Amino acid sequence: METMSSSAFVDLANHAKAWPFAEAKLLIERLEKMGGKTGQNPEVIFETGYGPSGLPHIGTFGEVVRTSMVRHAYQILTGKPTRLICFSDDMDGLRKVPDNVPNRDLLAEHLGKPLTQVPDPFGTHASFGAHNNARLCAFLDSFGFEYEFFSATECYQSGRFDAALQTILENYDSIMKVMLPTLGEERQATYSPFLPVCPRTGEVLQVPITETDPAKGLIRYVDPGTGETVTTGIDGGKVKLQWKCDWAMRWYALGVDYEMSGKDLSESVKLSSKITTIMGGTPPAGFSYELFLDQNGEKISKSRGNGLSVEEWLTYGTAESLALFMYNQPKRAKRLYFDVVPKMVDDYFSHQSAFRDQDTAAQIENPVWHIHQGQPPQVDMPVSFSLLLNLAGVCQAETADVIWGYLVQYAPNVSPSSHPELARLVDYAVTYYQDRVRPTKQYRKPTEAEAGYLRQLAEQLAKLPDDAAAEDIQSAVFSIGKEAGYEPLRQWFSCLYEVLLGQQEGPRMGSFIRLYGLTAMQDLLHQAADGKLATQTAGETR
Fold first, then answer.
1. Quick one: pLDDT at residue 101?
2. What is the domain extent for residue 523?
3. Which of its termini does the chain have fewer beta carbons within 10 Å around, N or C?
4. What is the C-alpha separation between 308 and 515, in angstroms, rounded?
C-alpha cells in the first residue's frame, strides 16, 4: 500500500464504495444523530446472535464475518473503540430433540427446560447449551474472529438484564399493543412477553400472564400443571422473554449499535425496533442480507439438506474463499452449492494477485482488504485452482504426488515447502476430484470428423517447442477449430471438454496443455480420437 498520511487514507475510505464502508458510514450518521457514544461506555457495540439448539452453520460464519468487516471499516473511518458480542440465546427451552445427537432419550426427558439445564448428550459439558456454546466458540476461534461471548443464561441469572426487564414490565401494555396484532387469534389468547421459568419443573412456560405489578416487579400466571396461581419476580433468571421482545431488550440492555440479520427476519426487526423505542432506547443500525439458494434457485433448508455446510466447503476450498463468497453482494440472493467453491477459490487469488499492483484507493475496494482486515498476505500462485482440478481429472489423481509430478515440470522451482498455499490447493483438488468429479465423469466418443480434428491438433502440438508459451498453444488450438469450420468457435472447445475431460465445461486449453505437457496431451488426443477414453468407466485409471 502506498505511503500516505492517516488523514488522507481516511478521506479515501470515506469515498470508498465497498459495502462495509457504506454500512460503516450509515452507522456513523446514526451515532452522530444520537449525540455520539460518550461516558463510561464509549465503545460502539456490534452484535451477532446464535441459537444453540444446534451446531454452528454456514449462516453463523456469514453473519460474523460480514459484521467483522463492517466493524473494521468503522474503526478505520473513526479510530474509535468497538466491541463484537456473539450472543448465545441458551436460555431458550428445548422444543424438540435434534436428530444428529447421541442419547436422544436423555434429551427427551428434559423438553421445555432451558438449554443450559438440559444434560449434555455428548457427555463432555455441564449441559447441552454449554456443549453447543463451546462448539460455537471453537468454531469462531478457528477462523480467528475477535469477539466477546455472551450467554443469555448468565445475563439473566446474574441480574445484568434486571433493569431492562423492569422497563419491559413498566411498558407491558404498550408492548402488547405492538405484538398482539401480529399474532393469530389462538396465539393472542396465550401470548405474553414474559416466559416464567417454572420453579416446580424448571421448564420455560408459554402461559398467559394474568396480572402485572410493575411497582413490585412481579407477575402472576396459572401453573398449567397444578392450576394454582403463581406469583414470581422477573429478576435473577426467574423469567425469560419471548424472542422478539428478548431481541429488543438485548439491544436496549447491552447498548447494541449494529446488528445485521437475514431477510426472513425483516418483519421481526421492525417489531423489535418498535419495542426498543417503547423502552426508551434506539434500535441498532444494520441491514437485511439475502438468503442462500441451492443450485436450482430454491431456498436452502437445513431440514431438506439442500445446502452446503461450512465443513463441506472447507473440505474442498479455503476459508478465505468462503469469506469472499460472503463478501460478494450480501443483499442479493446467491446460489450456494459445490460448484461455487472452485470459482470462489480462483476469484480470491485473482483479487489477491491484483491487490499488489493497485493504488490505495483501489486496494480498499478489493475484497481481500476486507477479508484480511487491511493486511492481505502476499501469495505467489503459479496456477489456478480450476487448472489443478482439470489436471486431477485428466490424470485421475489419487494422491497429491501425481499432481506435483506435473507441477514441477511446469514450474521447476515450485515445491510444497516453497509454495504452501499451492500445496493446500493441490490437496483440495485431489479431494474435489475424488468426491465430486470422478463419480460423474463421462467421456463422449468423438465423431469421425472430430477424431480427425483431434489428430490434427496432436500434429500441431508436435511442431511446437517443449517450452512453448500458453498463448502459442492456445493459438494452435484455435487454428484447428477455425480450419474445421466451427461456428461459433466455442463448439470446438465444448468438443474438447467433453471428449478429453469428460465434462461440459473446462479450462483455457492453452494454459491447461502447458501444465499437462505437450507430449502427454498428444498421447491423450490420440487416445480420445481412437475412442479409448469413452470406453472407460467413471473413476477407472488409465
1. 86
2. 448-529
3. C
4. 31
Q: pLDDT by residue (tens digit) across 389-441?
A: 999 999 989 999 999 999 999 998 999 999 999 999 999 999 999 999 888 88
User: What is d(CA 450, CA 284) in angstroms, rounded to the nearest whole number?
Assistant: 63
Inside any domain, residue 329: yes
> Which three-class secondary structure state does DSSP give residue 358?
coil
Q: Same structural domain for residues 314 and 462?
A: no
**The predicted structure's pLDDT at residue 542:** 43
Query: In Å, what is the CA distance from 133 to each residue of 130, 153, 412?
Result: 5, 11, 48
* Percentage above 70 pLDDT, the chain: 96
138 and 171 belong to one structural domain: yes
Residue found by looking up cell 466458540 in the block: 137
Does a structural domain hold residue 400? yes
Position 19 scores a pLDDT of 97
On the question of pLDDT at 302 being above 80, the answer is: no
| Residue 404 placed within a domain | yes
* Mean pLDDT along residues 345-368: 96
> pLDDT for 216-237, tens place per residue?
999 999 999 999 999 999 999 9
> CATH number, domain at 486?
1.10.10.350
Mean pLDDT, rounded, for 467-476 = 96
Whole-number Å distance between alpha carbons of 540 and 531: 15
For 220, the grid coordinates are: 402472576
HEC letters along 296-354: CCCECCCCCCCCCCHHHHHHHCCHHHHHHHHHCCCCCCEECCCCHHHHHHHHHHHHHHH
Question: Buried b vs exposed e over 133-163: b needs ≥16 C-beta within 10 Å?
Answer: bbbbbebbeebebebeebbbbbbbbeeebbe
Q: Do residues 38 and 103 share a domain?
A: yes
CA distance 405 to 40: 62
Domain C-terminal end among 440, 456, 478:
440
Q: How many structural domains compose the chain?
A: 4
Whether pLDDT at 145 is above 90: yes
pLDDT band for 53, please (50, 70, 90 cuts): confident
Question: Roughly what angle, to the nearest 10 degrees, separates helices 385-394 and 509-516?
Answer: 60
- Helix (H), strand (E), coil (C) string for 461-528: HHCCCCCCCHHHHHHHHHHHHHHCCCCCCHHHHHHHHHHHHCCCCCCCHHHHHHHHCHHHHHHHHHHH
d(CA 307, CA 230): 46
Q: Is residue 188 part of a domain?
A: no
Do 136 and 23 have their domain in common? yes
Torsion angle, CA of 48/52/58/63, rounded to 10 degrees? 0
Amino acid present at 94: L
pLDDT of residue 182: 96
Task: Indicate the residue among 253, 269, 289 that finishes a domain.
Answer: 289
